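Page 37, continued from 36.
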């Protein structure tokens, strides 16, 4: 991105996010360090450089790098007077501080980065380190190097917790049967397993693989995985398959690579070594693995490719011939290139006549054209094929998973487990990440033997940084039109309406035609980011729902802060118009939008309406919530004070009704204060009476007596007889409890007199009761 003095800043995930940006950053750091050390040793050996300058470069051999890496949200844009396009923010500062803290030659990463690359790199935990500009020491990790590439990485999961697999019985069974059938009939098939990121595809085949190892059968298992970094590298997947099979490392010399293939192949082929070597070279060239010098012009490229295909197929055939069956696990096919698909189809022809099981694992992809990777066309595949769709876990299974991960908690509050289950929406990866957030945020305290919960801090679960990456990466792949449409939909809510988005798109600075919006919505639906809903509630509008609540949140977060209020206003106005006579039903939603739009008065009005509706429906707690929101939006401006008082009066009553006495007392105290500003003595009396009733309830009769006396005084001043009678009753009651019986009788008598004047039967009854 830029040079700052002697430093260089690199940013990853800008402008396009990848889910593995942190991993890419650490790999880049390791590569830079390696490159510098190669350079330094070249200098030491006097190669290249000495020829061009000699002694000047002598000191270069001591050159070393310090690298700091951090992950987090940043501000992206044109910054400062130079309008340089860059990133700023706390996350950037921490990275820079880490760099300055690092010893020469070392790479330091923050806790946030560590969480995202856990399992991929070897690191040393340096513990909390004091970093300039940060009051608390930060946990810091030293990167030692990359771990060997593993097929099933242990990077996921909650640290130190082994979980059992939940659910998936049907799928495992289906795979087991497929294998047994292949062994017995000596005919195989291609199986496609499709499911969303994190739903458990890798775990499923991992468990299946474990099962295979415990069987009597002699089954050879081969594994290959596509990689987002190798995206579109020709034959990338097959290359991975072959390198894994022959144990070829990135660091192997060309000769070593060739030797390994030759060795691997000779176990299966009974032919002269030079023929095997020829095959090895063809395969190596096909896969772009480095070759020995003399091999470069060995064959023409097209011939090589044709032959190499056959050589790979021959190899598999030979492996199968010696086993009961062969399984090819091909992971993450959504990142594979076209030529890899070609090879798979080529191999799939073998399934017809050999016990070869090809298990293809993929996320759903919109741009896919291969029939065997699409649910709709899975039946038309020209070789034996099964299509499996991996659905989200059931609520029950999700709950089991939560209990399993949190097994060290003595007890798990139901609302906590429900919160995780609801938010994860059946995705086990989301479950794990949400629990990690609870741990990171100190809500769950991890101990050696037992874990504990710090309940007080539990409010809402934020979107984990790791998931932010996964979800954001999906948004970054959208076209501009789709992205804008999805962002505006996200402002509307988890459920939104096509006509509302059309409306917003039409109002935009660069207006979009309704047909464009519709086609964008269809594209988003095809990408499975949103789904249509049966029930729309708003006539003539098609309702949609976001795939995940968290996806909506991430989309919403990507809407610029300064644009949000205007969007919220548009949608609030739209909803207010559309809901027409049924506005009360939507009042709370509209109110929220007005609130976000900064239209406080409108918002308060609608919250009050929503509260009244809730009262009508006996939903007292909800009503209390809305009244509270309305109040918080009103100010001490003259015209709003009377309004405040009205709400406070309702709120106080409802709080008492729900026995929420502390809050009720608080409300009456503010009410008294507001009434004082307003100069409304009757309402002051009402507030004092309210307080008196609560104090009585709480057993504080002395305080109740004082409050009632105040109520009596102000009510008397303006002849508010109703409040006056109530004040006298409260006084009488308090005196009774305080043992002041003559006074109690006198006040009750007075109350009866006053209440007859206002003809309030209830108060008359109460006064009589006291007497
Ligand atoms: N049925 C299950 N029971 C318990 N844990 C599971 C289950 N399925 C998945 N998990 C856990 O959830 C996490 C995510 O699963 P996994 O890595 O298999 O997802 P995936 O579908 O392969 O995702 P991706 O598309 O990103 O590769 C892993 O830690 C895995 O162990
Ligand atoms: Mg996976």
């Amino acid at each position: 991105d830029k040079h700052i003095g002697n430093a260089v800043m690199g940013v990853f995930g800008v402008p396009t996010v990848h889910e593995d940006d942190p991993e890419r950053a650490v790999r880049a750091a390791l590569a830079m360090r390696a490159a510098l050390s190669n350079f330094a040793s070249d200098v030491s050996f006097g190669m290249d450089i000495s020829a061009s300058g000699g002694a000047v470069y002598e000191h270069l051999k001591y050159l070393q790098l310090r690298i700091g890496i951090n992950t987090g949200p940043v501000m992206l844009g044109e910054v400062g007077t130079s309008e340089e396009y860059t990133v700023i923010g706390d996350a950037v500062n921490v990275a820079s501080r880490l760099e300055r803290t690092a010893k020469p030659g070392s790479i330091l990463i923050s806790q946030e980065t560590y969480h995202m690359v856990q399992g991929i790199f070897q690191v040393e935990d340096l513990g909390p380190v004091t970093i300039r500009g940060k009051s608390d020491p930060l946990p810091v990790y030293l990167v030692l190097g990359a771990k060997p590439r593993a097929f099933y990485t242990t990077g996921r999961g909650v640290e130190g917790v082994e979980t059992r697999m939940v659910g998936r019985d049907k799928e495992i069974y289906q795979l087991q049967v497929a294998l047994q059938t292949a062994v017995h009939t000596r005919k195989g098939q291609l199986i496609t397993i499709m499911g969303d990121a994190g739903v458990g595809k890798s775990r499923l085949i991992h468990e299946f693989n474990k099962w295979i190892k415990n069987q009597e059968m002699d089954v050879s298992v081969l594994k290959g995985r596509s990689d987002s970094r190798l995206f579109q590298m020709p034959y990338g997947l097959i290359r991975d398959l072959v390198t894994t099979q022959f144990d070829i490392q990135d660091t192997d010399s060309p000769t070593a690579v060739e030797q390994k293939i030759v060795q691997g192949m000779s176990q299966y082929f009974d032919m002269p070594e030079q023929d095997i070597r020829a095959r090895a070279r063809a395969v190596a060239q096909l896969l772009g693995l480095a070759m020995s010098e003399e091999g470069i012009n060995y064959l023409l490229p097209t011939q090589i490719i044709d032959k190499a295909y056959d050589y790979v197929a021959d190899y598999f055939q030979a492996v199968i011939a010696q086993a009961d069956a062969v399984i090819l696990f091909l992971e993450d096919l959504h990142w594979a290139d076209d030529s890899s698909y070609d090879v798979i189809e080529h191999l799939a022809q073998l399934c017809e006549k050999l016990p070869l099981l090809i298990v293809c694992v993929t996320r759903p992809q919109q741009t896919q054209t291969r029939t065997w990777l699409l649910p709709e066309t899975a039946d038309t595949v020209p070789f034996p094929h099964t299509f499996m769709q991996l659905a989200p876990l059931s609520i029950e299974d999700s709950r089991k998973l939560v209990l399993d991960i949190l097994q060290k908690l003595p007890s798990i509050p139901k609302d906590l487990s429900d919160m995780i289950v609801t938010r994860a929406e059946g995705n086990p990866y989301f479950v794990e990440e949400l629990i990690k957030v609870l741990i990171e945020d100190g809500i769950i305290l991890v101990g050696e033997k037992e874990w504990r919960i710090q309940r007080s801090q539990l409010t809402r679960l934020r979107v984990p940084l790791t998931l932010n990456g996964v979800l954001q990466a999906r948004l970054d792949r959208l076209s501009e039109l789709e992205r804008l449409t999805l962002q505006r939909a996200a402002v509307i809510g988890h459920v939104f309406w096509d006509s509302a988005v059309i409306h917003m798109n039409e109002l935009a600075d660069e207006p979009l035609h309704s047909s464009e919006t519709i086609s964008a919505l269809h594209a988003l639906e095809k990408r499975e980011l949103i789904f249509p809903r049966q029930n729309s509630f708003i006539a003539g509008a098609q309702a949609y729902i976001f795939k995940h609540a968290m996806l909506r949140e991430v989309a919403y977060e990507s809407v610029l802060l300064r644009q949000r209020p205007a969007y919220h206003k548009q949608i609030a106005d739209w909803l207010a118009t559309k809901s027409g006579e049924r506005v009360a039903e939507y009042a709370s939603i509209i109110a929220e939008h007005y609130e976000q739009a900064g239209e406080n008065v409108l918002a308060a009005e609608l919250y009050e309406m929503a509260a009244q509706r809730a009262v009508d429906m006996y939903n007292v707690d909800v009503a209390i919530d809305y009244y509270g929101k309305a109040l918080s939006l009103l100010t001490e401006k003259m015209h709003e004070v009377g309004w405040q008082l009205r709400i406070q009066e309702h709120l106080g009553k409802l709080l008492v009704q729900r026995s929420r006495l502390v809050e009720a007392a608080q409300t009456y105290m503010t009410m008294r204060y507001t009434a004082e500003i307003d100069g409304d003595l009757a309402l002051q009396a009402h507030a004092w009476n309210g307080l008196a009733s609560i104090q009585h309830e709480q057993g504080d009769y002395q305080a109740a007596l004082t409050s009632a006396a105040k109520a009596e005084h102000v009510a008397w001043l303006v002849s508010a007889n109703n409040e006056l009678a109530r004040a006298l009753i409260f006084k009488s009651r308090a005196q009774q409890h305080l043992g002041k019986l003559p006074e109690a009788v006198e006040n009750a008598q007075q109350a009866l007199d006053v209440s007859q004047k206002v003809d309030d039967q209830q108060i008359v009854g109460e006064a009589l009761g006291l007497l």
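Residues 661-771 form a domain with the Serine Threonine Protein Phosphatase 5, Tetratricopeptide repeat fold (CATH 1.25.40.10). Flag for discussion at group meeting. Residues 192 and 360 are 5 Å apart (CA to CA).
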